[in-house]
Design a protein that fits this description.
single chain; mainly alpha; 4 helices
């Protein structure tokens, strides 16, 4: 079984149970935290120097002249 299924099932069952102590404010805080984390990941992905990262792992894929043309 996949880990996400095993770990996610208990969370979903706790939300659906009658004795759930999850309040709407906790759900809103969880959603806000998820959106904040997603925003940080997207910002860092956009700001990353992909030519440098790809050049370290796949140096044959980067042509120096093409990089200079993009930067000019």
């Amino acid at each position: 079984m996949r880990i996400a299924v095993v770990l996610g099932r208990s969370f979903i069952e706790s939300l659906n149970s009658n004795t759930s102590t999850t309040t709407p404010s906790q759900i809103i805080i969880g959603i806000a935290a998820g959106v904040a984390i997603l925003g940080i990941i997207l910002y860092l992905t956009i700001k990353a120097d992909w030519a440098n990262i790809i050049g370290k792992w796949f140096p044959w894929a980067i042509v120096k002249e093409a990089i200079q043309a993009i930067l000019m």
